[in-house]
Design a protein that fits this description.
By secondary structure, the protein is an all-alpha fold. The protein is built from 13 helices and no strands.
Length: 293
């Protein structure tokens, strides 16, 4: 279990850099995700081939895993759309709503019982988002897209845990990326028709960023996530990932000087979100200690 938690926190640290790359890469969110999944599929295929860990799955299982990959693609599109409509800080802070979406989806899908403490802690985080949304009108579109992104991320985590029980992490990742890429390729022409761009070819700098992004913050990150989900619950994973906005915001302040664009309502909302994380962490630790007795 200790190894799982170390991997979990390392994956959170890597995830904190994804928002930064979303801002650095100038492609629109649809093309960014499309290239990310394409490069990830190619890179991971050859890595598994070299390590002799490439596994085939049945057509039915491939479709199941690919469906999960499409959920991931949708989450990413809304996430990077949120960042490009506002900034990194707003885009990542909305991911803190994952915990309450997880409570909701696990009840609707699995009829999983939820505690009052989980709901109250999650609502504190929601209040933080509401404060930012209400008082900082500049970023309402970004917040709206970020909330949808958070819901999709939670749904992806739950379905990923359910489908991934019978497959190695490497197999899951490869078929998710390939399935997400194929699914996104089918809708990308319509997406670009609605949101036209001047070019679909990335610049040299964008391509370099994409390669770094895919290697570190995609392939390695999601291997860690899938491995962790075999040991911990989806709620615990999403709970820990509430720390991701803190890492991303610090990086955005250093790299993009976003501190000057954020007002008092943002920091008040962020404070409530951090409080929510602390309370939920204490609750999980207390529950774990009681279970061991």
């Amino acid at each position: 279990m200790k190894e799982a938690f170390w991997k979990l926190h390392l994956s959170v640290l890597l995830a904190g850099g994804t928002g930064v790359f979303g801002r650095l890469i100038t492609l629109n969110e649809g093309l960014l995700v499309w290239y990310r999944m394409l490069l990830a599929t190619i890179l991971f295929y050859f890595v598994l081939l070299a390590l002799k860990k490439l596994r085939r799955v049945s057509f039915r299982d491939a479709l199941r895993i690919s469906g999960v990959g499409m959920l991931l693609a949708i989450h990413w599109i809304f996430f990077y759309g949120s960042i490009k409509a506002s900034n990194v800080s707003i885009g990542v802070v909305c991911l803190s709503l994952m915990s309450i979406f997880t409570v909701l989806f696990e009840y609707l899908i699995h009829r999983h019982r939820t505690s009052v403490k989980e709901i109250l802690c999650s609502l504190i985080g929601v209040l933080g988002i509401v404060l930012i949304f209400h008082f900082d009108t500049r970023y309402r579109l970004g917040i709206f897209l970020g909330v949808i992104s958070s819901a999709m991320a939670s749904l992806f985590t739950i379905t990923n845990k359910k489908v991934g029980v019978d497959f190695p992490a490497s197999t899951m990742l490869l078929y998710e990326m390939a399935g997400g890429f194929v699914g996104l390729s089918c809708i990308l022409p319509f997406y670009l028709w609605v949101f036209p761009v001047s070019t679909i070819i990335p610049s040299v700098s964008d391509f370099i960023y994409l390669l770094i992004f895919v290697t570190v913050c995609t392939v390695w990150l999601y291997i860690l996530q899938i491995q962790v989900l075999k040991k911990v619950s989806a709620f615990t994973l999403n709970l820990t990932y509430n720390l991701e906005p803190i890492y991303s915001i610090i990086l955005a302040m250093i790299i993009f000087h976003e501190a000057k664009d954020l007002n008092f309502s943002f920091y008040t909302g962020l404070g409530l979100i951090i409080l929510s994380v602390v309370l939920q962490t204490l609750n999980v630790l207390r529950t774990s200690r009681i279970a061991k007795k």
